[in-house]
Specification:
The protein has 222 residues and is an alpha/beta fold. It has one domain (4-211): Aldolase class I (TIM Barrel, Alpha-Beta Barrel), CATH 3.20.20. It has helices spanning 18-31, 43-49, 70-83, 94-98, 102-116, 132-144, 163-173, 188-197, 207-211; strands at residues 7-11, 35-38, 56-61, 87-91, 120-124, 149-151, 178-182, 201-204. An 8-stranded parallel barrel has the order 1-2-3-4-5-6-7-8, surrounded by 7 helices. It is globular, with a radius of gyration of 16 Å.
């Protein structure tokens, strides 16, 4: 299987430099990854480095905790769109979900989708912090809000994607949304298992290792 079209080639470290973003984009061009996923302050640079290519620019909103006010997520999305982002990965408010404040979670997802203006929105659940019932509930809320994807993890929340969680998410959303597996995907075998479990997109910083079929250990988050 050609894994490259499934991959959001990711660099979200706080200490990433412009040269790192350039390298990320050069690799995305070479291997034809679906997108680069970068922090909002790097959108303009990524667009410049990817000019003329089909690689999309994905950015994150409410990252990595998701605990900010919903209005700030909407504004962050509007800015990202103005800067040229093609896709938005937003983090839900995990605490509100656990409080049973479903309408707040649903509303903030809808706000981001509206601000994204027809761009793809992926909803990050942070599954390592949730029970199976909470994962199902979060998926149901995301589908009701008409999100395009549900996503396992930020990679910064103490746990990453598991096959079991991907399977549960796929079972819950059916064909109504995509499923993005992220966090801890560092070799081709793991990537393949996630896709077989139901993932239609992968978020990883080990993209080059994955598409080359290598399984040497990769260090770092995401």
């Amino acid at each position: 299987m050609d894994l490259a079209p499934f991959i959001d080639h990711t660099l979200l470290k706080a200490d990433a430099k412009e040269s790192d973003i350039r390298r990320l984009c050069d690799e995305a061009r070479e291997y034809r990854f679906h997108s680069v996923c970068i922090n909002g302050s790097r959108i303009i640079q990524a667009r410049h480095f990817l000019e003329g290519s089909e690689v999309r620019v994905c950015t994150v909103v409410g990252f990595p905790l998701g605990a900010c006010d919903p209005d700030s997520k909407r504004y962050e999305t509007e800015v990202a769109v103005d800067l040229g982002a093609d896709e938005i990965d937003m983090v839900i408010n995990v605490g509100m979900l656990k409080d049973g404040r479903d309408e707040i979670v649903r509303r903030e997802i809808r706000d981001v989708i509206e601000a994204a203006d027809d761009r793809i929105v992926k909803v990050i659940l942070e599954t390592s912090l949730l029970t199976e019932e909470e994962i199902k509930k979060a998926c149901e809320i995301a589908v009701e809000a008409e999100a395009h994807f549900v996503k396992t993890s930020t990679g910064f929340g103490g746990g990453g994607a598991t096959e079991e969680h991907v399977q549960l998410m796929r079972k819950t959303v059916g064909q109504k949304a995509g499923v993005k597996a992220s966090g801890g995907i560092r070799d081709a075998a793991t990537a393949d298992r996630m896709i077989k479990a139901g993932a239609t997109r992968l978020g990883t910083s080990a993209s080059v290792t994955i598409v080359q079929g290598a399984d040497a250990p990769i260090t770092g988050s995401y």
